[in-house]
Amino acid sequence: xPELPEVETVRRGLxxxxxxxxxxxxxxxxxxGFPNTPQDVRQFLIGAxxxxxxxxxxxxxxxxxxxxxxxxxxxxxxxxxxVGETRFGAGHPNDSLVNxxxxxSTRVTLTFDDDTKLFFNDQRKFGWMRLMPTVEIANTAFMxxxxxxxxxxxxxxxxxxxxxxxxxxxxxxxxxxxxxxVAGIGNIYADESLWGAKIHPTRLVSDVTEAEKGxxxxxxRAVMNLAIEKGGxxxxxxxxxxxKKGSYMDFARVFRREGLECPRCGAVIEKSRVAGRGTHVCPxxxxx
DNA sequence: CACTTGACCTGTCCGC
DNA sequence: TGCGGACAGGTCAAGT
Length: 288
Description:
four-stranded antiparallel β-sheet, Helicase, Ruva Protein, domain 3, alpha+beta
């Protein structure tokens, strides 16, 4: 699931569902997925109420009344699934999951004071959830090096061009995926943005003109805005916390469309491997 | 140093 | 149908 638009969709759903609730129970079964000690969990999580749900890059931050926060990274296959009687009332799309969760992919279960539950599921176990003092978040290695939010009003075309120029000898797709250049772009939206700007993903950053980088900035933001509006991308039966399914893939122009026609010029979309990732390109629009 | 590749895991899909 | 290998929306450590 998770690039910036998916994490933002989860964040908005959770903000509606859990702010103000008190955590009354927690169970986890892997050190790796949740490294905090039982003592810390008892002291800083159990009995705490949720004061805010934030996001930075692809990391979710659930702030607690104890001045601790739960940080969550979903990596490739992480999901946060809210289950229980909600303020949306009966008939919530996740109601049917009441008897299905937890399952074998469940790593952490949080129970709230109104008997609702939040499940952190992760098939591939790359994701993590950890408790830390809220004020220390900014000092973590990740937060120290992560680049600006692409949709921030402070983030200008010139900022983007400057930050890209720090990686002159790498290809443009790898630079877009580099979280220290700009936060939140992953494999889907890198391909979609490069198609929008008509830039071939293997071109070196130093060979892409400033005008093209400006186009990439514009396309990247348009793609991110559209994806958030559509609730992100999902290719499974997964339903997010608010019971909505992301529909961006219905609007994708190259991603997972190999063998189909480019919606702009009609050429056949090709798939290859760039920066170690499956990569989708219109060979005509995005000529090298 | 800058950049690229492999490892981390489990499940699924595709070709023989 | 069974089996091996490639691949999957991310990030680091290790390698060149």
